[in-house]
Write a structure and sequence with these properties.
Layout: H1 3-11, H2 23-33, E1 41-49, H3 51-58, H4 60-78, E2 82-88, E3 91-97, H5 100-113, E4 116-117, E5 122-132, H6 139-161
Antiparallel strand pairs: 1-3, 1-5, 2-3, 4-5
């Protein structure tokens, strides 16, 4: 076994910046949440818009520091009945115990803390959800549902932020 394999074996399942579970850990947790008889849970994906711009302007180390600050606030806002994951550099995921109406206040708090107003770049979040175990049969299906809902939210926000094109009557 070489050094890389040893590192992966020791560090497998954990995002090195946030100490959240990684994508493999997320998929395993979702698989457990989909087992027959599982209590209701909400799977939420939070996309950090502006993080790539922050990284480009401020560098990788400053970006990792920002991600760590956001991750701590994110986990605190969700509380102990949630598990947090980071599957890509600009996505946080949460698996929150309870039905959506119970979890919505915590998801809203998480959304509120996932923002940073910097001199050089702003970071904002949007989120999408999937209701488990009702909406999916497989882990990837659950992730796709939450991601699709995230896309709907982002497109709606972009439409609100973009001025309508006005064509002169003629």
């Amino acid at each position: 076994m070489d050094d890389y394999d040893a590192l992966v074996e020791l560090d497998g399942g954990i995002d090195p910046v946030t100490s959240f579970g990684d994508r493999d850990a997320l998929l395993a947790a979702v698989e457990d949440a989909l087992l027959a008889g599982s209590p209701p849970r909400v799977l939420a994906v939070f996309d950090l818009a502006g993080l790539d711009e922050h990284r480009r302007i401020n560098g990788l180390i400053a970006s990792d520091q920002l991600v760590l600050r956001l991750a701590r606030r994110f986990a605190d806002s969700l509380g102990a009945s949630a598990r947090c994951f980071r599957s890509r550099s600009d996505e946080f995921w949460a698996l929150v115990d309870g039905a959506f109406d119970e979890t919505r206040p915590r998801l809203d708090r998480a959304l509120a803390v996932l923002r940073e107003d910097g001199r050089t770049a702003e970071v904002r979040a949007s989120f999408g959800v999937a209701f488990l175990p009702d909406e999916a049969e497989e882990p990837m299906e659950a992730l796709m549902i939450a991601d699709r809902e995230l896309g709907v939210v982002r497109r709606a926000r972009e439409r609100r932020a973009s001025p309508r094109s006005i064509t002169p009557s003629g």
